[in-house]
Each structure stands twice: as C-alpha cells, then as structure tokens.
Design brief:
The protein is flat and about 55 Å long. It starts with a helix and ends in a 7-residue tail after the last strand. The protein has two helices and eleven strands, in the order αββββββββαβββ. It has a four-stranded antiparallel β-sheet with strand order 1-2-3-4. The chain has a four-stranded antiparallel β-sheet with strand order 5-6-7-8. It has one domain: Lipocalin. The longest helix has 27 residues, at about 1-30. With about 180 residues, the protein is of the alpha+beta class.
Length: about 180
C-alpha cells in the first residue's frame, strides 16, 4: 500500500513539474515587468506581474497580495491562453485604511474598450471580488478614485435606447462589498 501511495504522489508531482516547465518556458519567451504597491500601513503589499509575449501589443497581468513577511495571501491571474482575451492592470490603489486594494483592468485584445472591469481585495475575508459583479453593472473608467477611508468612485454605463452613451457616477463604500 505504501508503494501505491508513493507512486501516486510521484506521478502527481511529475505532472506538476512538467506543467511548471511548460509554463516557465512560455513565460521565458515573454517580456515581464513587476510593480510593487505597499498598503499605507506597510503590513500588506500587492505585486502586479505583467507578461507580454513577443509581438503582442498589450501585456496581461497577474495580481498577488502578500503580507509584510512575504507570505502569499491571494493571487488572481488575468492571463488568457491565447494572449488576446486577458486583462492588463490599468490602475491599482490601496484604501487609506489599508483594508482594501482596488485595481481596474483593460482588455489585452482591445475587446469592449468601454468596459473597465474592477476588482478588489478585501482583507477582512482574504478574498478578491469583482466590484462590477457586486454592483451588477459595467464600470467604464480605468481611472478611479479612492476617497478616505475607503470610498470608491468611478462611473458606469447606463443603457440608453437612443444609442448615445449615458454615464452615471458610482460611489461605493468598500465595506459594503460581500465576501463570496
């Protein structure tokens, strides 16, 4: 029984090693940049990894949240398999109280240029949530504001039968975001 367990573990690890080699070989052919953003209280930091393969116009991003000791708390990848349907971090900010980290995204392939999905890391539940999904709307500004201590300000598109874009201001207390 011990041999079977050892063999299963070996095969599982072998698969993971091969997957890692494949991933790092693909990434090695890409241009990578890393940006680090510290929370105001310096207890957390976000790292944005941007990867851009040769010939691609827009990079795609991975966002990771770490504690001050370098322990990974949460990670979200916006890298697509075809490198044309992912997202790039346009802006990232921490709230003044260091409880929330917010970032907006732009499409790496230029799809839906009016839409700037926006995500938020909630420290209270160690989760990354979509602000768009929780507001049930599409946010349209890659540039947003964070007012002290944790008020998010942006704009959204309101459907308009005439076809002309109709925009409305969005103001959200980030403590109202739900952990799910």
């Amino acid at each position: 029984m011990h041999k079977v367990s050892f063999m299963k573990q070996f095969l599982r690890n072998k698969f993971l090693y091969l997957l890692a080699i494949f991933y790092f070989t693909a990434v090695a052919n890409a241009k990578t940049s890393i940006q680090k953003y510290f929370s105001p209280n310096q207890k957390l930091f976000a790292m944005v990894y941007n990867t851009q393969a040769t010939g691609e116009i827009m990079p795609e991003s991975i966002v990771s949240i770490y504690d001050s000791h370098g322990k990974l708390l949460k990670r979200k990848s916006y890298v697509s398999s075809d490198r044309e349907h992912g997202f790039n971090v346009a802006q990232l900010k921490w709230s003044a109280d260091s409880q929330f980290c917010v970032w907006s995204l732009t499409s790496s392939g230029g799809h839906s240029p009016w839409h700037s999905p926006t995500d938020c890391y909630l420290q209270k539940c160690n989760m990354i949530v979509s602000i768009d999904a929780q507001l049930n709307c599409g946010l349209t500004q890659a540039k947003f504001k964070l007012q002290s201590p944790h008020i998010f300000v942006s704009q959204r598109l309101i459907p308009n039968p005439t076809g002309e874009p109709n925009l409305a201001k969005v103001k959200l207390d980030l403590t109202n975001l739900k952990c799910h």
